UniProtKB/TrEMBL annotation:
Sequence ranges assigned to domain Methyltransferase type in this UniProt record: 38-134
InterPro entries attached to this UniProt entry: Methyltransf_11, SAM-dependent_MTases_sf, Thiol_S-MT
Protein name: Methyltransferase type 11
Listed transmembrane segments: none
Molecular-function annotations in GO: S-adenosylmethionine-dependent methyltransferase activity
Keywords of this entry: Methyltransferase, Transferase, Ubiquinone
Organism the protein comes from: Marinobacter salarius
Amino acid sequence: MGFYDERILPHLIDYSCSVGQVMKLRSQVVPKANGTVLEVGMGSGINLEFYNPDTVSLVYGLEPSEGMRRKAQANLAKSSVAVEWLDLPGEQIPLSDNSVDTVLLTFTLCTIPDWRAALDQMKRVLKPDGELLFLEHGESPDEGVCKWQHRITPGWKKIAGGCHLNRPIAELIREAGFEITELENLYVPKAPKFAGYIYKGRARKPQQPS
């Protein structure tokens, strides 16, 4: 990665992903995590303050960006939960099958190049009774907004770390074989609609017949 990706982009992403309304949404999702957690795209550790140390034993932070891991040091220093870095992209999760209780995705699925491979890996490491928690932005159902998302995305990806504005998040999660058990959609107040359509919810592996 170049100077922009490692020295400038982490600050831009961290700022845009930590504005007030976004932090409020994070505070509604992250505390639902329990047990051993895999946070895919941990970034600068924005979510750490919202983990409940009474229910979370360990957080694996998957983050391939050295710039983001460096920026996370301050949040790690004051974290109330134990964190272990995994220095690999989402398509390569170095954990055993059925080894985590919760997978957490917050504003990450939009940037992973091979989303299907990444979701397959998440499903592989998630325990049969585990849960995928997600808070993502993506494709809007509003035709006018959606058209702009498709127009803007090619250029947007170049300056925003590969971020896609137009991924239909719920559809991708279902295509990967997860069952969505809870889903809420909304626009982030005061955010540009092309970047602020939210998918917030829970999913699990298909339950095997007994």
